[in-house]
Amino acid sequence: MDRNTLTGLLLMTIILIGFSFYMQPSESELQQLQKQEDSIKAAKADSSNTIAIDTIDQKSESSIVKLDTSNVLSAATAGKEELVVIENEKIKATISTKGGSIVAVELKEYKTWDKKPLFLFDQKDSKFNLSYTVGNDLINTSDLYFQKIGSSFEVLKQDSNTLTMRLASKTGQYLDFVYTLKGDSYLIDFDIKSEGMNNIISNNTGYYDLSWHVNSLKNEKDMKLERNNTTIYYKYDKDDVDYISPTNSENIKLESSIKWASFKQHFFSSVLIADETFSNGVINTNIDLSSDKVKDMTMNLSIPIKRLPSESFGMNFYFGPNQYHILAAAGNNLEKQINLGWGPLKYINRYAVIPIFNSLEKMNLNYGIIILILTIILKLVLSPLTYRSYLSTAKMRILKPEMDEIKAKVGDDDQTKLQQEYMKLYKKAGVNPLGGCVPLLLQMPILFAFFFFFPSSIELRQQSFLWVGDLSTYDAIFSWGEIPIISYIYGNHVSLMCILMTASTLIYTRLNNQISGATGQMKWMGYLMPIVFMGVLNNVAAGLNYYYFVANMMTFGQQWLIRKFVDDSKLHKQIQENKKKPASAKKSKFQQKLEDMQREREKQLKAKK
After folding, report:
1. Cα 560 from chain centre
2. What is the mean pLDDT of the chain?
3. CA 352 to CA 11: how far, in whole Å?
């Protein structure tokens, strides 16, 4: 492995290691997060104004909510909770007459990692509230009993149905929560309608304050990985999509108009989308490392009150998978919740990898076979670069004896002069010293693009292949308890796909060393990187390690085939003939830079004398 190739691989290793450590909190950060959580809990216990998240018992008897509110809503303070279910082929939403809101959502097409029904949130760990002022009293809809207009229903295909929850006053004014569900959809149309509320809402109240809290449930195998992929995403009306860092507990004030906000989990999302915009808001996430829930998240959004006799504010809930084409079809850039990488990587995934992957899906093949075909396509596209890289490396190997002679003659003391002599040799021989490195660097964005694509792909979730039960997570063949340092760096298990990837990379390194003629320290450093990769990739999706393993095996095949067509003796003869030709007067940028450095060095030496 030559110096330039090693430099490229080292850069890739550093980025991967940095990304791995960046995406997980340090020990001090974890301790700080725990302190924040303890402080929040203490504050909640001491504060008389904090709203508690009530546990709803479906079998509870009639109850009376004690509120210091005006008489116009006194009838709504007492009642019996009823649960109404609306569903289609994809989702099942449970709506409570207490608060009139959705208290649980099940995705019918999916299961949890341990094959149980998959809920985005349930009745114990969610709360939806709309607050406003009547007289001197703050009204919280989550404390009041709504009248249901309609009953449980199920819709299919193109059918639709509506359920209304009404909060009525004694004097005839009312506030409606209207839910409309169509068949075969992850969207629930949600409208807040009011009639005559302008007569009872306090004149100094300009907004309804909408608060939605969810303590997200564990649906995936790896709690740490799920936490690192769960956070709040949001979109300003005139700006791009943004989010809270998944590894932090954070509170953010949203100053301008907001189009939507989302409780984004690893593979699923609960999104609230305004037909127009929310005026402003506050969002916050909190991580409790001792909890069996993934993350505590809250969004507070302001809905403008126009003070008209009849008003309506339209919204949509999205409860569904983080699947690129489904989110894109829902509009409003919801697909940007999927982490496809930074810079050019996301464009490679968006415009190349995903379309090819989706086309292969239509063939109804096993996803392991789809990854194999995807890899074959990729290697064929990159084969010209692979050929050029091999050819350049072979030329450098052939020139190595002459380079050693130059080094013995010039010595190691003057590196600038040594490089100049090397460049003269390269120029005479017609060899580009970066010819082996540049093709590798051009391939790196694609390698990194897959690093983001596979862990984010819900298509791989719970898809089996050979011994792998789920391509979207690691394939542990052996696990153990918590071991200091080892568990933090490597994990608590051994992933077989990661072992195969590491073994194939070591073999690939050995073959590269044979091609390049690497010796000494350069040779053995090449073997260190696969070991580093093993620690980094042991906890990632088995589909990613499988891709790297297959790519390595195909590279072996490509190199074997190339060696059949590349004759080293003919290549050596061509280099010697090139050296006999008159040297070109044109200098490369690299050579010119070396000469400039040499002149500058000579000036400095003269100045010292």
Report:
1. 37
2. 80
3. 24
Helical spans, DSSP H, in 411-519: 415-429, 437-456, 486-489, 496-516
| DSSP string computed for 265-306 | -SSEEEEEEEEEEE--EEEEEE--TTSSSS-EEEEEEEEE--
- Token representation of residue 354: 């995903």
Task: Quote the CA–CA distance of 418 and 276 in Å, as a whole number.
Answer: 67
Encoded tokens for 362:
């239509």
- Tally Cβ neighbours within 10 Å of residue 97: 19
Kindly state the tokens that stand for 270.
Answer: 């609960």
Closest among 67, 99, 78, 82 to 166, alpha carbons compared: 99
At 459, give phi and psi (nearest 5°). -60, -30
- Separation of CA 192 from chain center: 33
- For the record, the structure tokens of 227 come out as 């936490």
Higher pLDDT, 448 or 24: 448
The answer on pLDDT for 17 being more than 70 is no
pTM: 0.76
3-state secondary structure of 307: coil
As a residue count, the chain comes to 609
d(CA 398, CA 413) in angstroms, rounded, equals 25
Place of tokens 């490369």: 588
Confidence category of residue 368, pLDDT binned at 50, 70, 90: very high
Q: What is the maximal distance between C-alpha atoms in the chain?
A: 104
Structure tokens at 333: 């850039």
* CB 484 within 8 Å of CB 27: no
Q: What is the pLDDT of residue 289?
A: 84
The token duo for 410 is 């010039």
Domain 51-338: which topology?
A: Beta-galactosidase; Chain A, domain 5 (2.70.98)
Nearest to 142 by CA among 216, 81, 61, 232: 81
Alpha-carbon torsion (351, 352, 354, 358), positive or negative: positive
Q: What does the domain layout of the chain look like in residue ranges?
A: 3-20+349-589, 51-338
Residues 440-462 as b/e (b if ≥16 CB within 10 A, e otherwise) read bbebeebbbbbbbbbbbbbbbbb
User: Taking the CA atoms of the chain, what radius of gyration do you get in angstroms?
Assistant: 31
The helix (run of H) or strand (run of E) holding residue 466 is none
- In angstroms, the CA 207 to CA 370 distance is 51
pLDDT in tens, 351-366: 889 999 999 998 989 9
- Residue 420 gets the label, from left (phi > 0), alpha (psi -120 to 50) or beta, of alpha
Angle between helices 367-410 and 437-456 (to 10 degrees): 150
What one-letter code names the amino acid at 179? Y
Bridge partners (DSSP) of residue 177 are 165, 192
**E strand or H helix that includes residue 162:** strand 160-168
Strand partners, 211: 129, 300
SS3 321: strand
CB 449 within 8 A of CB 353: yes
Query: Does the pLDDT value for residue 516 go beyond 70?
Result: no
pLDDT digits (tens, 9 = 90+) for 263-319: 999 999 999 999 999 999 999 999 888 888 999 999 999 999 988 999 999 999 999
Among candidates 59, 79, 86, 256, which has minimal Cα distance to 154? Answer: 86
CB atoms closer than 10 angstroms to residue 390? 22
Enter the tokens of residue 247: 């590894």
